[in-house]
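hi! just following up on the protien thing from before. the input was this:
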Amino acid sequence: MNKHHPITVLILCNILLLLHTLQAVHSHTVCIIGSGIGGASVAHFLRSYSDSHTIGQITVFERNDVVGGRMATVTIAGETFEAGGSILHPKNYHVLNYTKYLHLRVKNPKHSDDSLSLGIWNGDKFVYKTLNSNSKLPIVQRFVSIANSIRILLRYGVFSLFRMSSFVEATVNKFLKYYEGFESRPMFESVDGMLKWAGLYNLTTRPLGEELVELGLSPLLIQELVTVITRINYGQSVNISGLAGAVSLAGSGGGLWSVEGGNWQMAAGLINRSDVVLHLHEEIESISYLGDVYELNSTKGKSYNCQVTVVATPLDESSIHFSPEISIPPRKLQHTHATFVRGLLNPSYFGLDVLSDIPELVGTTESADIPFSSISVLKQHEKDVTYKVFSREPMADALLDDIFSVRVETIKINWGAYPRYQAPEKYAPFILDGNHLYYINAFENAASTMETSAVAAENIARLILSRLTGQVNFSSPNLKSFSSDYPSVMHSDL
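and the predicted 3d structure came back as:
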């Protein structure tokens, strides 16, 4: 048997140690603040598009005790429901690929487009209600569906509905440019540049309502159906900017889906697979640029140094102190209060006689006198129902007791959900300081969804790698399939 000479072994150990040291010197450390879909996505793309020689340790900080950011679930009566980001569009290719990459199960809504019972409430009465039938016979259900289609066409106009659909389709097709290959898709240092390249910028310069009037939509369609959609999806009226409005309308179409067990699993899975060091329940209170690294100080009294820092949480209500100071346009967040109630609605509140006359989805027109944006049925139980109520302000118990005749269980969640959109929109830069301090949520002033966060994060990852290495193209140009051969560290505490 061959024996290694001690000197040879020592030389080999020294060479390996030197190689490891050189790799550590040349790889760059990254800190990510926020473990929502944006923070998880940028970690994923940094790993997917580079190697350990370029990107070394990635550290993710989350101020809460679970990952997911504005994706979360609640449990009522043993059933789990989405409490934050709920629905995904069939052309949300990043998140769709995440589910495949992470082997997550796709869940379709419990209602098909044809069977959803909808009512539009103006504070006094239902100005529009779909027909409904208790019969389970397919032929009866089909007849009711056809009748509802005719009624909606007669009320809002064939051409108006067609123009609205065409507007949404054209906007979605422009957004699809963000999935093109690296050879045809540049990196963007500004949100303006990113939007102009895709032909979407002009939509952010004026309100949705003005855009739709110019397209020839009927006033009734805008005041009722479009308003219901924007109030449900963004908690705001048709005065929101045009791009956010188009995204909101797209979120009311067919083929919508979510992840079985909760959309937060996408963020958890990407963090699991991206070889990161995760700090839960640790909030960053200051970020200081020291010339070659950023020093991050947390509320736990700890300090961390990283060469690259990515802010993946809205700065609008953040208390992070930056040194040197940064400058971003002021904006306010639209808070959405999600109230989950297991009980029974009160028919008399809606001027009705029986509970069955209340639609499964109650949308509302724009009025200061209406205390909620929407009420929807989540689950029919044997004796009662689980509902989700969206509102701009907290729902007081006395008000809930007026709206509901029975309340068995109530859960209230306050989300700083998305920006208050106001055209023309102004944007924070993707690069906050001209060095390596990046801001994913700058894109939210264009539109705020799980997918837009992923798209912005992918651009940030490419931007980081390009500015660190001088390269334009990286190792994974095909965005519709993800490699699974990079290192993985599983976190049991997710």
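The first strand starts at residue 28 and ends at 33.
The chain has a mean pLDDT of 89.
cheers
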